[in-house]
Every structure is written in C-alpha cells, then in structure tokens.
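Backbone-to-sequence.
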C-alpha cells in the first residue's frame, strides 16, 4: 500500500514506478531464495531449467515445441523415483538423497531396479570380488545370472544403495540392513537391502515388495475347488486352531493374508498380532497389534490385554514360544478361532513344529482342527510351452493315464533357433502357482499326535484321513500342462 501511495504522490513517473516494482520484486525474491535453499535442485523455482520449462509449457499451448530443460546427470536413466528411508530424521534422509544423486552410481541404481522390475523379478543379488560383481535376478523364485559389472560400476551402485537405506557405504565387512522406497510406472515398492562381507568380498541382497495383494483368494493362489471348500469350512468354524505352513520363500505370508481375506472378518472381530520388525500387509477390518522382537518382546506382551477385549478370532503369523501357544490353546474352548503359521515342508511336520516349542501334545491335539501347507511351483509359459509324449516308464511311475506332458521350448537339431519368447523372455516359465496339502485333523490324527508324534506315523494317519500329498497335487498340475515334471521335482526336493 505504501508503494502504491508513493507512486501517486511522487510527480516523476519513472521514480514512482521503480519504487513500486521494487516493493513487489524484493519480497518475492527473498521468498524464492529462502524456499530454494531448503529444496533439491530439481524442485527449485525460477532457475534456468524451471524457466525453460515455463517457456516450453507456454509455447506448447499454441503448438510450438520447445526443449523444456537440460536434464541433470541424476535425472537421466529410467523414470524411477527413489526415496531414502533409513535416516534418523527427514533432514538426514534429504541429505542422503542429495549425496546419492551426486554419485556416479545413482543412474546405475535406477537402471538396475527398473530392469529387475521390468523382468518381473523381486530381488537382486550382488556378489563382489576383486574382479567385479556378479549379478543375479530372482524371477518367480529362481535365480538367473545377469551380465556382471566391473568395480567401476558396481562399487558406486552399492554405495548409493547403502546411502538411500541410511547405512554406512564405507563398511564392507559387517552386516548391514536398511530400506528405501521406489516408485516406477505408478507402483510404489518397499526396497530392502542386506549386505555383509564374505570370503570372496561382499554380498548384497536387494529385495523389492510392491505391497499389493497379488492374490485375493485361495482360487487365485491355485487351490482346487474341493480344497477351497475344505479350508473355508475350517476358517469358518466358530472355534478351532488352524495352522498354515510353507517353506521359506514359498509364500507363507501370502497364504496367511489370503486366509484372512477369505475369512468372515466383517462378521467377526479379528485380532492380529504382528512383529514390528516384519513388514506385513494389513488386511481390512482386522485389528493389528504389534510387539517388538528386537526389544525381546513376544506376543505374550499383548495377549492378556487383547483377550480382555473378547475378540472372536486371533491371527498370529509366527508361533515363537510355548507360553503364547498355550495361551491361545486356552482360548479355543471359549469359542475362539485361532489362525497361526509355522515354517514346515509338509502339513504333518507343521504339527510337530508346534510340539518342538515344548507344547504338550495332550493340550494341543484336542484343539487343532486343520493344517494347510503350500509349495510354490513355476507355471509354464502359455505362449511357448511344448507338448510331448511322456515315456512309458514315466507314466507308470506317475500312476496316471497321461497322454501328453508339457515343457519349456527345446531346440530342434538342424533347425535355426527361434528368437526368445517375448512374454517370458526365453525363460519358459511365467508366474507361479501353489500346490497344497489340506489336512482335516480327525480323532485318529489327534491320537497319533499324542501317542506317536513322528513323521511317518502322522503321514500314515493323514493319508487315512483323506489328505492328498504335495506330490499327488503337483502331478495333477503337470497333467494339466500347468507346470513341467522337472519343475515339480525341483520344488518337491526343497
């Protein structure tokens, strides 16, 4: 207002006009300088790149194309955004990002992460040696070799990964763990890195998780209709103890998530207990309670208080101690349902895993109602799989009438090799599906668990109870052309 008043009072136009312009430009300039000092370069305004972008946008509206701006070195490469998360504060994370963007390994990091995502991978393994770094991608649970990187590329790559995760990039011997975020093609990923010195040099494992529910139902996981009915009946009971099991890397967390999603959580009150040290997907209408194993805590820190809220069902992903299991067992007679998971290679072994925690079989056997065990197997690519007539001895061993089996494409002698399949990139497999054992625990199985808790005895009891084994379920998939016999054998040997 004062500048405007002077403009009208001063008799000389240019003097008054100059004062009025300074009155507007001065505060605006101070604001821009203050704002820019707190942001990264690519976020600053009124810089040369920002002005070029404004000019490009202005002329673009009238159909004139103008180069928007010169791309900084860090902005080159695939359009993937990396977000540091390992710092003690937002300021530390911001500083780590600035250092990472200035590193020659920043673009390489973007290229590697984008490449593994484009190839449907979920992990990268970097094996460092004096000569360079071996690179492997995990695709559908199997590691595939990629072109190695020399140390000039590989060292800055690892330094950036550690910096984004808030770890010490100079430390090459001690074990370090951290995480950062990534966004690519509109999908956000939680990226975790674990590095540690090994005899040959250093090893780093980078895992990516998009935090989306890839499977929403048992059917999508690959479970047969009859098994779906059996499992839904188990988790639909007003009381009981249901175990879910799998080997590490075979989708146990996914199976448990699907079980929660398939349960009647909108009709009953579900209380889930999670370890704060593990990142799990939250399921709608399931109340989550977290304990911290890093502080020596167990689910028993939370259970007494949760019990006082009278939930209809409990969900616990990891059975870690006898006291927790015994407390949950005590809830079943109160018409409570318990869903829990353990790591085991088969359904009957899951029962023994509970007893290993020093839980009495006489207490556990009366409440256990069922076990669901899963193993993941790769699916043949529908675009390139080949049918072949199985040898007679194979058919005899399988004990089933099979006219044709399927396998990945095989080279034909004398013919020119075909280009790799565009869908699976020449791997021969695309995606994974589950094979399942569903054990409905009856009185005979309970009695065996109490009197003769051994694998062979429990297997026999489970077979008599009507359970089909992983091998039998897998043969059905092979006969349908979903997977191959070599892949089935690989998975069952785990």
């Amino acid at each position: 207002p004062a500048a405007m008043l002077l403009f009208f009072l001063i008799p000389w136009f240019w003097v008054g006009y100059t004062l009025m312009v300074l009155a507007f430009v001065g505060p605006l300039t101070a604001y821009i300088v203050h704002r820019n000092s707190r942001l990264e370069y690519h976020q600053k305004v009124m810089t040369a790149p920002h002005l070029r972008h404004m000019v490009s946008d202005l002329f673009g509206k009238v159909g004139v194309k103008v180069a928007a701006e010169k791309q900084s070195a860090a902005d080159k490469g695939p359009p993937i955004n990396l977000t540091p998360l390992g710092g003690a504060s937002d300021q530390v994370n911001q500083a780590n990002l600035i250092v990472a963007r200035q590193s020659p390994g920043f673009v390489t990091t973007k290229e590697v992460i984008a490449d593994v995502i484009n190839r449907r991978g979920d992990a990268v393994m970097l094996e460092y040696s004096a000569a360079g770094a071996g690179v492997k991608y995990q695709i559908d649970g199997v590691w595939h070799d990629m072109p190695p990187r020399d140390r000039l590329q590989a060292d800055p790559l690892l330094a950036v990964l550690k910096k984004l995760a808030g770890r010490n990039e100079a430390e090459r011997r001690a074990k370090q763990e951290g995480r950062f975020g990534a966004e690519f093609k509109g999908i956000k990923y939680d990226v975790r890195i674990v590095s540690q010195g090994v005899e040959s040099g250093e090893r780093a494992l980078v895992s990516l998780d998009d935090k989306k529910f890839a499977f929403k139902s048992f059917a999508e996981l690959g479970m047969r209709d009859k098994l779906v009915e059996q499992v839904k009946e188990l988790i639909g009971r007003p009381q009981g103890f249901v175990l879910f099991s799998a080997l590490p890397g075979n989708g146990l967390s996914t199976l448990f998530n699907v079980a929660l999603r398939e349960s009647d959580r909108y009709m009953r009150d579900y209380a889930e207990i999670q370890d704060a040290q593990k990142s799990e997907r939250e399921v709608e209408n399931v109340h989550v309670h977290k304990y911290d194993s890093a502080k020596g805590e167990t689910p028993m820190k939370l259970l007494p208080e949760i019990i006082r809220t009278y939930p209809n069902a409990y969900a616990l992903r990891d059975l870690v101690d006898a006291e927790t299991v015994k407390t949950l067992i005590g809830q079943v007679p109160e018409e409570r349902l318990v869903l829990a998971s353990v790591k085991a290679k088969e359904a009957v072994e899951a029962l023994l895993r509970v007893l290993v925690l020093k839980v009495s079989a006489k207490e556990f056997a009366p409440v256990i109602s069922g076990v669901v065990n899963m193993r993941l197997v790769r699916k043949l690519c529908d675009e390139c799989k080949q049918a072949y007539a199985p040898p007679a001895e194979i058919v005899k061993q399988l004990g089933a009438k099979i006219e044709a089996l399927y396998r990945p494409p095989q080279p034909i002698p004398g013919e020119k090799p075909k280009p790799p399949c565009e869908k699976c990139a020449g791997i021969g497999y695309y995606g994974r599906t589950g094979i399942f054992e569903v054990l409905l625990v009856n009185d005979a199985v309970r009695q065996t668990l109490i009197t003769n808790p051994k694998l062979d005895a429990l297997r026999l009891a489970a077979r008599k109870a009507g359970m089909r084994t992983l091998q039998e379920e897998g043969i059905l998939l092979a006969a349908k052309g979903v997977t191959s016999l070599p892949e089935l054998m690989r998975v069952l040997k785990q």
